[in-house]
Amino acid sequence: MPMSLIPFHRGLISAAIVFCFGYAGWEFTGYARGQGGGFPLIGVVFVALGIGLSYYLARLNRFLGYDSRKPDDR
Fold first, then answer.
1. Whole-model pTM above 0.90?
2. What is the rounded distance in angstroms from the CA atom of residue 62 to the CA atom of residue 72?
């Protein structure tokens, strides 16, 4: 039985989501402490990336061509 890389892929995507939101939080914290002007823009970009990756992870089966809906039995 061949091994599937889908669980590994899910783990990497999950790690990327945690990184994106964590880095965004770090950027916003830096801005709140007055450490520069570019921090809020970078934070917003990483929040958007985290949301995009979350959407991708939630719909990974659809992106891979697996559809969880069963066809009608008509």
1. no
2. 18
